[in-house]
């Protein structure tokens, strides 16, 4: 898996519980999206919405950074686990 990761074909996600998950990059996009993770069954839902770039811009300017990006994961309980 590490070789694939180096080649940029998979993306590694580290969650707070120390578990790492991998997913294949979607072809033709930069892979930027967000995850909604069920804390009970670890199901991952792809979230296409992104926080406004203005926030990144503001953070970049404030701290003198360039090329600011972000990772964002949401956690909750999926419909199956609510039963
Ligand atoms: Zn669940
Ligand atoms: Zn994803
Ligand atoms: Zn985003």
Provide a concise account of the structure shown.
The protein is an alpha+beta fold and 83 residues long.
Question: Could you walk me through the main structural features you see in this protein, from its secondary elements to its overall organization?
Answer:
With 83 residues, this protein is an alpha+beta fold. The protein is 19% helix and 28% strand. The chain has two helices and five strands, in the order αββββαβ. The protein has helices at 2-6, 53-63, and strands at residues 10-14, 20-24, 34-38, 44-47, 73-76. The longest helix has 11 residues, at 53-63. One zinc ion (ZN) is lined by residues 23, 33, 35, 46. One zinc ion is lined by residues 38, 40-41, 43, 78, 80-81.
Record the strand order, biggest sheet: 4-3-5
The strand count comes to 5
**Gyration radius from CA atoms, angstroms:** 15 Å
- Which band does the percent of strand residues land in? 25-35%
Helix percent reads 10-25%
Structural class: alpha+beta
Mean pLDDT across every amino acid position: 80
Q: What can be said about the biggest beta sheet? A: 3 strands, mixed
């Amino acid at each position: 898996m590490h070789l694939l990761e180096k080649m940029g074909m998979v993306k590694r996600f580290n969650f707070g519980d120390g578990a790492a998950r991998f997913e294949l990059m979607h072809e033709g996009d930069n892979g930027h999206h967000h995850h909604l993770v069920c804390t009970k069954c670890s199901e991952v839902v792809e979230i296409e919405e992104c926080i406004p770039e203005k926030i990144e811009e503001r953070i970049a300017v404030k701290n003198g950074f360039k090329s600011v990006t972000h990772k964002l994961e949401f956690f909750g309980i999926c419909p199956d686990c609510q039963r």
